[in-house]
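Final report, Chapter 2: Outcomes

The project's central promise was a pipeline that accepts a single protein chain and returns its three-dimensional structure in a standardized token representation, suitable for archiving and comparison. That pipeline is now operational. To close this chapter, we reproduce one record exactly as it appears in the project archive, with the input sequence first and the structure output second.
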Amino acid sequence: MQRLGTGAAAWLPRLGVIAPGLALCVLVALGCVWLRNATGIAVLNPVVLALVAGIALGAAVGRPDGLRPGIGFAAKPFLRAAIVLLGLQVTLGQLAGLGAAALLLALAVVGLTLPFTVWLGRRLGVDPALSQLIGAGTAICGASAVVAANQVARGRDEDVAYALAVITLCGTASLLAFPLLGEWLGLSARGYGLWAGAAIHEVVQAVGAAAAGGPEASQSGTVMKLARVVLLAPAVLALGLFVARRAEAGVAPRVPVPWFAFGFLGLVVLGSTGLLPPVAAEASRLVVPVMLAASVAALGISTDLRALRQRGIPPLLLGVASTAFITTLALLGVLLVG
């Protein structure tokens, strides 16, 4: 009991230091989530709104010393906890119902799009970390993948902000274009849903586009997108190994093992056992968007607008090319799957 009391007492000063900055980021996140829910506009992603709000707040008031510890906590430990909890939102049973061929398609689009984007980014002269973030966001699950991948890519705050902007722009364009393209291509309802789930960046964007094809398309698209979300952890682990290998060649500092990825996979498995009550998954759907938005708000507050402008056009071209690549690859896969 004495040891527990001593430990709690040691944590109290730390919590007092973190609380102001963390509270600010959480308040920004709650405001962004409320705005999306109040308007009912699905494309108003709270994470992206929090980025914009954070950048505006940082430009207006700067980063006072009293807020910096909490902002740093929100940008790293708080973010990692959110990614772990994201594992409660998908089960192995859902993935099994998709079928082996469709699961292979999910694996292919993630496994090929990320390295393609990194390769093309090198050809376009885009900073390696920024290329990795754009590739992760395109290949896996949009904003969540960008901020998760940055735990191993170690890009600057400006890289994260630019990658989020590019992913949002390209994903929104896909959301608007896919229903028209699906009708023009004459895809079946299931095929159209699989295509949307396999190609569109954000979960809400993919689900929204798939829903335009009817209930069957909505079901197949949602599960396909969840299959890509599950690949977040393996992809981040692989990216960490890639960065570490470059570190051995003297290109960058050694990157630590992303243990949060194992926590994510652990909760996917635990949630699949049926041991957790359904309320756990429902709670994660409420809590995770707020936590992710708070983390991105912290990144936005720390972003230097001048450095953001210096990134130029090539990263935007990379995002467009990566989106075209995954869209074409997913369509070919759907045609093969049937």
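Archive annotation: The CA atoms of residues 122 and 289 lie 32 Å apart.
This record, like all others produced under the grant, will remain available to the consortium after the project formally closes.
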